[in-house]
Amino acid sequence: MTENLVKTSKTEELQDKRDRYVARGVGNGNRRLAAKAKGAIVTDLDGKRYIDFAGAIGTLNVGHSHPKVVEAVKKQLDDYIHPGFNVIMYPSYIELAEKLCELAPGDDEKQVILLNSGAEAVENAVKIARRYTGRQAVVTFDRAFHGRTNLTMGMTAKVNPYKTGFGPFSPETYKAPFPYYYQKPKGMTDDEYDEFVIEQFEAFFVGVVSPESVACVVMEPVQGEGGFIIPSKRFVQYVRDFCTKHGILFVADEIQTGFARTGKTFAIEHFDVVPDLMTISKSLAAGFPLSGVIGKKEYVDACNPGELGGTYCGSPLGCVAALAVLDILVEEKLNERSEEIGALIEKQALKWQEQYEFIGDVRRLGAMAAIEIVEDRATRKPDKAKTSAIVKYANENGLLLLNAGIKGNIIRFLTPLVITNDQLNEGFSIIEDALATL
User: CA nearest 394: which of 29, 24, 138?
Assistant: First the structure.
């Protein structure tokens, strides 16, 4: 008697193993499995090709497997993998620190600590600020996202899925108001709204926490997970001046916005503001785990030897990858290309907005672009269901696409900055089909 055997594909086999062996709490926007990735194209195990509009959540500004990054890492592997900077130093850490200090805004003397992840960078920025000021309180903003560690969960504003059931959180973290121009009260101009939010910000430091208790204010120059919300120059400069007046360190969280994403090396440059400390990660090392804090020497020097660091912090592989990335940004003019990509996204999105009542807002800074999906423009009520349907359709039809926002109703664009115009248009075509299905 012969049994009928159903052959299981490698993809199905690994999907089953993922469900059996990988923690359910790890999210997956796409359940296919990557086999190869180059530039802005990912190919799965079954040979299906995807245009990448997600960039590993903004990690791949120079694209997948950039030849210069691959070459640098291969060369490093022949020499050593990880002697541990705390045990014996190596040149790439020091060379990268020097370049980052030169790139960061401001003329003050600076220093760098290299770490592993974005959340780790934020935690260390807070440690430096607390050590220097002798204060404990940390202020972030409505809709902020800074990480999933205990301290950074407390600094993050989005409850689901990041915070529910994981408390208690680190004390002395507070959320200040942050402008959201599309959802501002009806009838207000942007200038009037800025004035309104600034008044709320001042009231916050009267009714919620005293400025004299605050070590640092941590701001994303463009809110990422919060929905790609772009503040005005006036608001950012007001917060910077407020910090200076009260002896509070101003920290720019550039983890998602840095390294040409917004058309400048760091997004804070758009606002003509110099931060005291700056956190970096994601596209710094083209996919290798690396992060850092860049800060004025006076502040960073407040910490004694051994108070900052960790086993894998500033790994040689990450450092040489990052050095290659910094060269690529200049050689391939990625700041300029970022603006070009953003303009193309905006032009296409505005056409869609004319066609579809449920596209409420189109916004961008450089190539950090977003579309806000609403039930209708009159109410501006967020429509998470439509947003999820668009993202699902895209991922099923050859486009890696992500949503964002407190209400989950933002389509965000984080394409590699090496993407071609033809690849962009191919991705637009898939989104267009998705919109038509609604």
Answer: 29
Asked if pLDDT for residue 2 goes beyond 70, the answer is no
- pLDDT for 438 equals 87
CB 284 within 8 A of CB 295: no
On whether both 325 and 343 belong to a single domain, the answer is no
Structure-token match 């463009």, residue found:
222
Query: What is the pTM (predicted TM-score) of this model?
Result: 0.95
* Domain count along the chain: 2
| Residues 6+ positions from 111 with CB-CB distance below 8 Å | 97, 101, 294, 295, 297, 300, 301
Mean local confidence (pLDDT), 315-344: 98
What angle is formed at CA 259 by the lines to CA 255 and CA 265, rounded to 5 degrees? 115
Which residues fall within 8 angstroms of residue 357, CB to CB, at 6 or more apart? 376, 377
**Helix 316-331 × helix 67-79 angle, to 10°:** 150
The string of pLDDT tens digits covering residues 147-189 is: 999 999 999 998 888 888 888 999 999 999 999 999 999 999 9
* 257 and 288 inside one domain: yes
Report helix, strand or coil for 420: coil
- pLDDT tens, position by position, 95-104: 999 999 999 9
CB atoms within 10 A of CB 410: 24
**HSE-up (13 A, CA, CB side) for residue 365:** 26
Residue in the block written with tokens 């993998």? 81
**Spatial distance between the Cα atoms of 318 and 93, rounded to a whole number of angstroms:** 9
- CATH number of the domain that 26 lies in? 3.90.1150.10
What is the spatial distance between Cα 239 and Cα 198, in angstroms, rounded to a whole number?
A: 9
- Tell me the residue range of the domain where 268 lies: 69-331
From the CA atom positions of the chain, what is the Rg in Å? Answer: 22
Whether the pLDDT of residue 1 is over 80: the answer is: no
Residues 286 and 411 in one domain: no
In this prediction, residue 7 carries a pLDDT of 66
Q: Which of 313, 331, 349 is the last residue of a domain?
A: 331
